[in-house]
Structure formats: C-alpha cells, structure tokens
Amino acid sequence: MTDKIKILIADDDPVLLKLLPAQLSAEDLLISVTESGKSVIEALKKEVFDVILLDVNLPDISGVEVLSKIRQTDNSPEVVMLTADKSLQTGVETMRLGAYDYVTKPAESEHVEVVIRKAAEKRRLVKRNKQLQIAVQQQNESSVVKPVFASPVMEQIYAQAERVADLDTTLLITGESGTGKDVFAHWIHSLGSRSESPLISVNCGALPENLFESEFFGYEKGAFTGAGKQKIGLIEASDGSTLFLDEIGEMPMTMQVKLLHFLENGAFRRVGSTQDRSVDVR
Fold first, then answer.
1. Is 5-131's fold the same as 138-278's?
2. Taking a C-beta distance cutoff of 8 angstroms, is the pair 10, 67 a contact?
3. Which of 95, 96, 149, 236 is the most exposed place for a label (fewest CB within 10 A)?
C-alpha cells in the first residue's frame, strides 16, 4: 500500500502551473493542475485530493467562493490559498473561512512543500478520526487478542492467515455460524500493514435493501429527498483500511451484484453522481 499525496494546483498563471509541479518533484507527490474555479469543483467530483493549492483570484470564480464550496463537502481536502497580497489580511481571512494555511506568491518551493506535507498530515489525522468514530459506533475492539485454539486444523488456518495478512487481495472467509469468522477477520487485519487504521465492520444481513447504495457508496447533495449534504459511504470511510462484510451471503442478489462491481474493479459511484471514484480498501 503506497502513501501518496494527491495535490491539485489551481491558478491562472501558466508559468506557475508549469514551474511549481516541476519543483515539487518528490515521488510521493502526485500533482494535477487547473486554471479555473469551475474546473476545481468538477475535478473534486471525479477524484479525491489530499491538498488543493488555490489561488485567491481565479478568472471565473473567486478562490474564496471555491473554498466555501469545498468546505461544504464531506471528506474535503485541505486547502492552501495562494495570494499575491503581501498583507496578512487576505490570508487570515481565508483561514477563518476554513483554509489550512496561505502562501504569498512568489514563494520558495521548499516552503510550499513543507506547507503541503503539514496539510496532508492534518487531513490524514482527520480521516483517521472519522474511521475511529465509525469503529467506536460499531463497538469494535480497540485491541485484538490472539485467538486461543487447540486443534491442529485451526493452527494451520491461522498460519495461513499470517501469510496473507500483508496482501491487499480480497479474502473470503467461510464457516458455520459461531465458528469465529469475525474474530478471524480482526486477527488478519491486526497482522497487516493496515492495522493502524480501524477495521470497519458491516452486518450485511441487517442492512435494508433500500439503504444499501447510500450506506455503502455514499451520496451527493440533493441525490434524493432528505440528502441535504454530501455524505461518504462505508467504502470511502474505509479508505486505507479493511472493510469486513459480515454475513454477505444474506444480502439480496441485486445488492451482491452491485457490490461485486466494486470488488472486481475497485471503483464505485456515489448515489446522484455520474463519476466513478476509487479507494484503497481491502
């Protein structure tokens, strides 16, 4: 599992859009560029960014207005404002409106990179906090105790679990009711590289069919009556972690087909959206 920082730079200066990405050349920085406020909003519908460098004065929409729209979204990226105003007033005002920080142009690329990395770390912590909140609501164990068993067969099974713990492939766990499939899933998660993030568990058999898509995939603002705000689903909340689908065989077949598309392609679409999104979920 790689830990890349996805950055979007929005500025109407073509020289800056060419020069700054070349200077920010670290391998873990994935940079996209755009020249307008509307294109920023459209880009956020298609991709998930960690940090946006946003010019205050864009040609079509004010950067402050774009910032306001970004802060209204769920799972929003951190925003660093770019301004040519050397006074503190503009930068402080944008931070009051939700920007992580501001950079006065022209700026040294080393300084810009430091600000980007601090902003990305804040977003990582915010995302981790949301995952923890979901895990607490589900009453997940805060720590995993190694299962106790005496059967040679179980010894072989848990040895196999240790071998696959660091793989990112989807695993199917089968067994009779009461044999500890959930314990087994938590044990595998605890051994792998994703263990720093809480495992998200879903009882598929208890999920009403009419809520399946909105709970799993999330939805856009206005997607249906009552959808007053964009909401990320369980799949997106599990980004960087493990999603345990308990009792998946109890799901109606129509729901299984929709879920299979995500498991096969790693892509999903929020309710009310026309754009596919991808996440790093095991």
1. yes
2. no
3. 96
The alpha helices in the chain, defined as continuous H runs, are: 14-23, 37-46, 63-71, 88-96, 109-137, 152-164, 181-191, 212-217, 234-237, 253-265
What CATH number does domain 138-278 carry, 1.20.140.10, 2.60.40.10, 3.30.420.40, 3.40.50.300? 3.40.50.300
| pLDDT for 1 beyond 50 | no
Tokens of 166: 């660091």
Backbone angles phi, psi at 251, to 5 degrees: -75, 140
Joined together, the tokens standing for residue 144 give 């995993």
Six-digit token string for 151: 């059967």
**pLDDT tens for each residue of 128-174:** 777 666 665 554 444 555 677 777 888 888 888 888 888 878 888 88
Report the helix count and the strand count for the chain, using DSSP H and E.
Answer: 10, 9
CB 222 within 8 A of CB 163: no
> Could you report the per-residue pLDDT of 239-276, keeping only the tens digit for each?
888 888 888 888 888 888 888 888 888 788 888 888 88
Could you tell me which CATH class the domain 5-131 is placed in?
Answer: alpha beta
Evaluate the CA torsion angle 14, 117, 27, 3 in order and state its sign. negative
Return d(Cα 69, Cα 63) in angstroms, integer. Answer: 10
**111: phi then psi, degrees, rounded to nearest 5:** -65, -40
Record the pTM.
0.53
Q: How many Cβ atoms sit within 10 Å of the Cβ of residue 46?
A: 11
